[in-house]
Amino acid sequence: PWFLSRLLHECAIALGMALERSSAAAYNSHLNSYLTFCQIHNRPVTPTVDTLSFFIVYMSAHIRPDSVMVYLAGICNRLESEFPDVQQHRAHPLVKRTLAGCLRRGRQQPLRKPPLTLTILHDVLSSSAQTALHDDLLFATLVATGFYVLMCLGELVWPDTIALQSFRKVILRFSLRIDHNSYSFTLPTHKSLKRPTALTLTGTPPHVIQAIGRWSSDEWQKYVRNHAYLQQALLHGQT
Questions:
Q1: DSSP bridge pairs for 184
Q2: Collapsing DSSP states into helix, strand and coil, what is residue 235?
Q3: Contact 237, 200 (CB under 8 A)
Q4: Would you say the C-alpha torsion 36, 41, 47, 51 has a positive or negative sign?
Q5: DSSP track, 75-140
Q6: How far from 160 is each of 39, 123, 165, 171, 183, CA to CA, in Å?
Q7: Where would I find the beta strands (DSSP E) of the chain?
Q8: How far is residue 34's CA from residue 110's CA, in Å, rounded to a whole number?
């Protein structure tokens, strides 16, 4: 059996690793917004139903209402240790209806960036090959690797913010293996929400897309089925 000191030590480590550094930084920013709201409106920081409702309508006038919903999650996470009933107030019908009304009132057409295509990738690689500068070649390598391996930007670069730097997520140099026609490396962690748009448009079979994207199920196909153009490309790749 472990001594109490060992149990406390291991529990402290587990709690410290429960939240990613990037998420913790975002939650702190959300909390600062809430504290600023309370300060300029002369309201106590105690998260009541009225205060949360007022915060929702105020923030929805300055940012997208769906972002306010994310703010509430961060605020509740940071205040729960001091105010254990904050989650109950967050789930109160008045707070939920206020948020739903702001979401409907501030509904906007979603803005999506166009997907990275093979044509764009070819232009990037061609431009980098002409300059032969280290930074240009490195940029082209990052773009090509992220494109074909379905990686997020955060998995390819080292963040400038010291608080977000973590060797648990970085690709270590000694894991790199270079062959004549390929290269490989070990990716410690990854995010499973990656868009299979480019591979679908090129007719890549579904089982290959699932393997490259490191999905444990076929949930990614729900995204494809919601888009007729991608669904046609997927069916064409299966024939």
A1: 177
A2: helix
A3: yes
A4: negative
A5: HHHHHTTT-TTHHHHHTSHHHHHHHHHHHHHT------PPPP-HHHHHHHHHHHHHH--HHHHHHH
A6: 31, 28, 8, 16, 27
A7: 177-178, 183-184
A8: 26
- pTM comes to 0.61
- The length of the chain in residues reads 239
What would the pLDDT profile of 192-202 be if each residue is shown by its tens digit?
A: 444 555 555 55
What is each CA distance from 205 to 26, 76, 85, 196, 210, in whole angstroms? 37, 43, 49, 11, 9
- Show the 3-state SS of 174-194: HHCEECCCCEECCCCCCCCCC
List, in sequence order, every residue forming a beta bridge with 183; answer none if it has no partner. Answer: 178
Cα angle value 86/92/93 (rounded, 5°): 160
Distance CA 65, CA 59 (A): 8
How many Cα atoms within 13 Å fall on the side-chain side of residue 106?
A: 20
132-160 per-position pLDDT tens digit? 788 888 888 888 888 877 777 777 888 88
In this structure, what token pair is assigned to residue 215?
A: 């999905």
Question: Do residues 183 and 176 lie in contact, with contact meaning Cβ atoms separated by under 8 Å?
Answer: yes
